[in-house]
């Protein structure tokens, strides 16, 4: 039986189980899951019924098992958490295996860590009890949705375009994204909606200035200005893949704006469908007029090829991206 990957659905639909094993290399996901289970368990007299231990510390496993075997005080259940189970030695498995034979119905024992060898007796026992959950990080394309959900948990609102921009700039490290969200919340203030403007102002503004000037030059189909901003971005130490991601984002926006405007959509509707601020639509419409749809589709295909080259070619990133600019901008000029 494989490890479970339905932790969120499970906790929404079922009562907490006597034992959980939560595994993830992403600390943000572990903390989120542990907090969710603990919140369901400790509904009364929390201070008297919460025990926290760390594997690797002397006697931690035995003390965790003893705590889980203790009746709760003035509450229905006791919470016992043993963290860092990836540090467990083989001998540490024995007390846990013994406890798992007859877990206390009035306790929830939560084991958490980076990993656990599922071939061991402990791993097999947890699997057979359907208690082992693997918390996988979201796919790159799902990061903005994850970020929006994370914001809601903090009673914040993040516009979709802001979430997309933030993940484009920071990447897939959930810890870094979470820290950026905290900074943005402080900057925007209580009850504010976090926008792309907030992201641009807070998340390393000097770092991304050249990139935004680059994407604006692409929209204006100005090759000399785009090449200059590309050199500025790379010369300032910017990651070539991030630069490529932002170029792709600009081209996608141009294509979407063009197609929606041709269908008769108004600026407000376009902004809603794309997930950008309404005042950004008209500048994009003006830029999109410089390209036809086939040119933009060709440009996005060129971006995909450049992505492969950046990850596999021995050519310098600057050469690859400079060739991309020529293909996207000059080819369009020649076609017109």
Features:
336 residues, alpha/beta, Rossmann fold, Helicase, Ruva Protein, domain 3, Zinc Finger, Delta Prime, domain 3, 3 domains, five-stranded parallel sheet, two-stranded parallel sheet, 16 helices, disordered C terminus
Protein model, in words:
The chain has 3 domains: 7-134, P-loop containing nucleotide triphosphate hydrolases (Rossmann fold, 3-Layer(aba) Sandwich), CATH 3.40.50.300; 140-202, Helicase, Ruva Protein, domain 3 (Orthogonal Bundle); 205-335, Zinc Finger, Delta Prime, domain 3. Helices cover 59% and strands 9% of the residues. It is built from 16 helices and 7 strands. The strands form 2 sheets. Strands 2-3-4-1-5 form a 5-stranded parallel β-sheet, with helices on both faces. A two-stranded parallel ribbon has the order 6-7. α3 (60-68) links the parallel β2 (50-54) and β3. The protein is elongated and about 75 Å long.
**Percent range of helical residues:** 55-70%
Q: For the largest beta sheet, what order do the strands appear in spatially? A: 2-3-4-1-5
CATH class of the largest domain: Mainly Alpha
Return the CATH architecture of the largest domain. Answer: Up-down Bundle
Output the CATH topology of the largest domain. Zinc Finger, Delta Prime, domain 3
Structural class: alpha/beta
Mean pLDDT: 90
Query: What is the β-strand count?
Result: 7
How is the biggest beta sheet arranged?
Answer: 5 strands, parallel
How many independent structural domains? 3
Overall form: elongated
Proportion of beta-strand residues = 5-15%
Order of helices and strands: HEHEHEHEHEHEHHEHHHHHHHH
Q: Supply the number of helical segments.
A: 16
How far is the N terminus from the C terminus? Answer: 60 Å
Radius of gyration: 26 Å
């Amino acid at each position: 039986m494989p490890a479970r990957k339905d932790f969120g659905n499970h906790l929404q639909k079922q009562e907490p189980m006597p034992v959980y094993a939560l595994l993830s290399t992403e600390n943000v996901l572990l903390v989120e899951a542990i907090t969710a289970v603990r919140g369901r368990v400790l509904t009364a007299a929390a201070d008297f019924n919460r025990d926290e231990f760390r594997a690797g510390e002397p006697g931690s496993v035995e003390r965790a098992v003893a705590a889980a075997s203790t009746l709760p005080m003035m509450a229905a259940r006791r919470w016992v958490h043993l963290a860092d189970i990836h540090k467990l030695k083989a001998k540490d498995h024995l007390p846990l295996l013994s406890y798992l034979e007859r877990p206390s119905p009035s306790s929830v024992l939560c084991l958490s860590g980076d990993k656990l060898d599922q071939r061991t007796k402990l791993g097999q026992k947890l699997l057979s009890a359907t208690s082992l959950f693997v918390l996988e990080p979201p796919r790159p394309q799902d990061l903005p949705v994850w970020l929006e959900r994370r914001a809601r948990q903090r009673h914040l609102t993040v516009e979709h375009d802001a979430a997309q921009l933030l993940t484009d700039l920071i990447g897939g490290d959930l810890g870094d994204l979470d820290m950026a969200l905290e900074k943005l919340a402080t900057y925007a203030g209580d009850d504010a909606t976090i926008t792309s403007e907030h992201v641009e102002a807070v998340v390393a503004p000097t770092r991304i200035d050249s990139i935004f000037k680059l994407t604006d030059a692409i929209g204006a189909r100005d090759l000399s200005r785009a090449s200059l901003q590309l050199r500025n971005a790379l010369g300032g130490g910017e990651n070539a893949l991030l630069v490529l991601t932002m170029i792709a984002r600009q081209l996608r926006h141009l294509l979407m704006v063009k197609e929606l405007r041709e269908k008769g959509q108004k600026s407000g509707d376009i902004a809603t469908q794309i997930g950008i601020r309404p005042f950004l639509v008209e500048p994009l419409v003006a830029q999109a007029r410089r390209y036809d749809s086939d040119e933009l589709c060709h440009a996005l295909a060129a971006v995909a090829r450049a992505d492969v080259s950046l990850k596999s070619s021995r050519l310098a990133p600057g050469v690859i991206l400079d060739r991309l600019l020529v293909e996207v901008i000059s080819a369009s000029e020649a076609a017109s």
